[in-house]
């Protein structure tokens, strides 16, 4: 979808033109009440069936045979929507480091424009984890009557000092790579590799590393498994992402505060009318369970569910069997459609 006039961002700057890439799966039913809208996290994309398999896909809880699933790539990303490498205007240069600050609310403005374009008056379920949960919360506050159900995982009402510090450490790694400042599509790759390796420490847990990366050779002095894992994960992101989007999206995450201009986070959450399920992960050090307890306390009538997992923050992507069980329990009373 194209917005030729673009969007006036929360900062006051105009981003124009704006393109929003999205995928839909399944079919909108005649009653138009089977829409599930997924807000994706930091480095994912609109193809939710590829990165949330086990929850979205044939035979999964959200089976495209039953549901009309919509997922839009977020502004600032590199998977089709307007971002630092796409000027949006074929004649202009990409903006690279000059890409403007996009807030979570700006991302939501893009989702809202797409919802209106698609003519979806009601969304049965709005779901997202992490940065996706931040968008979902903002949207449910902004348009309280649109969403029947809201499911947020491993997310928060306001990005924490700890989360911002992690993001800053990652940006420092990218800024220390001189190629980032050259402004080319491959700029900052070595920095982003280090940034992803740093981020991973906040996405997994001590126990997960202990289980998957333990050494079997007690005499080893170098070349540890945990080291090559960090290298591999950094390389894997470099192969599919770019440093300018990484910096832009981490800055977006830092801006997240549902209470901005609304008195407080608690007052803002009280606007939500959707029936809400808030899910936490016991080993999540980046978005710890206290943050989800806060959400559940302040969203009217919300249900809180704690997942026990050793996977840390990334548990929201990995623990699909547990999430399915929680959804089955959550939807039973209201049955569905
Ligand atoms: C275009 C696309 O790729 S779609 C985008 C995919 N990603 C997203 O959308 C973002 C959301 N997804 C994610 O963040 C992740 O995929 C997760 C959290 C769901 C799972 O993370 P993964 O990295 O797949 O799992 P895990 O931590 O177990 O690591 C497995 C990988 O590490 C490798 N690995 C494990 N131990 C080691 C080691 N000691 N040394 C080197 N490599 C290792 C494995 O071989 C495997 O590599 P592969 O992914 O290249 O096959
Ligand atoms: N590992 C995920 C989640 C971060 O919140 C990603 O790369 O998008």
From TrEMBL:
InterPro entries this protein is in? AB_hydrolase_1 (IPR000073), AB_hydrolase_fold (IPR029058), HAT_MetX-like (IPR008220)
Q: Report the enzyme's class at the first EC level.
A: transferase
Q: Which Pfam families match?
A: Abhydrolase_1 (PF00561)
Q: Enumerate the NCBIfam families for this protein.
A: homoserO_Ac_trn (TIGR01392)
Complexes and interactors:
Homodimer.
**Protein localization:** Cytoplasm
Q: What is its main location?
A: cytoplasm
Name the reaction it catalyses.
L-homoserine + acetyl-CoA = O-acetyl-L-homoserine + CoA
Record organism:
Hymenobacter nitidus
Q: Which UniProt keywords apply?
A: Acyltransferase, Amino-acid biosynthesis, Cytoplasm, Methionine biosynthesis, Transferase
Which residues are substrate-binding?
196, 314
Pathway field = Amino-acid biosynthesis; L-methionine biosynthesis via de novo pathway; O-acetyl-L-homoserine from L-homoserine: step 1/1
Whether tRNA processing counts among this entry's keywords is no
The source's superkingdom equals Bacteria
Q: Which residues form the active site?
A: 130 (nucleophile), 284, 313
Record protein name field: Homoserine O-acetyltransferase
- Extract the GO molecular function terms from the UniProt entry: homoserine O-acetyltransferase activity
- Family assignment from sequence similarity: Belongs to the AB hydrolase superfamily. MetX family.
What EC number(s) does this enzyme carry?
2.3.1.31
